[in-house]
Specification:
Elements (H helix, E strand, L loop, with lengths): L1 H19 L18 E15 L6 H15 L5 H26 L2 E10 L4 E7 L11 E7 L2 E5 L1
Antiparallel strand pairs: 1-2, 1-4, 2-3, 4-5
Helix pairs in contact: 1-2, 2-3
């Protein structure tokens, strides 16, 4: 029963990680982006390709959850100073594995969209795939830009 509780803790932490993942589609705006002026350009998609947007590699949640779980599991090994060493090693290995789980859990499927703007300029933007807005060659699109942030929409 003890091991079941440890695995339940691990999968609960994984679910929390997934819920914390940010949305990088062209349809989502952060609170700081709302009510701000954006420049608008129109153009045509001349190329597109699927890409993977890497997940968080420096997140503390996966490292902490994995470290705790690894330490708890390894604390059942040995006795005395051997138990302490096993707990420490388990925590380190668990932290590394937890960090890898977090990166995979926050990874996104994206699309690189190359656009020939009406102005003649050619640009490329990567954003998370949104099933409602999967862009194809020859699509007429709108490019919204605010500072260094740009998004593509119809």
């Amino acid at each position: 029963m003890k091991i079941f509780g440890k695995f339940a803790f691990f999968f609960t932490a994984l679910a929390i990680l997934s819920a914390c993942a940010s949305n990088l589609t062209g349809e989502n705006y952060s609170a700081s982006e709302a009510k701000k002026v954006q420049s608008v350009n129109f153009g045509e998609v001349i190329a597109e390709r699927p890409v993977v947007i890497d997940g968080r590699e420096n997140g503390i949640l996966g490292t902490a959850a994995g470290g705790i779980l690894g330490g708890v599991i390894a604390s059942n090994i040995g006795g005395g100073s051997g138990k302490d060493i096993a707990t420490g090693i388990g925590a380190i290995i668990g932290g590394i594995l937890g960090q890898q789980v977090e990166e995979k859990a926050t990874r996104k499927q994206g699309q690189e969209i190359t656009i020939q703007l009406d102005s003649g300029e050619t640009i490329s933007i990567v954003q998370q795939i949104d099933q409602a807005n999967f862009f194809a060659v020859n699509d007429r699109v709108k490019v919204l830009q605010q500072g260094n942030t740009a998004r593509v929409s119809y």
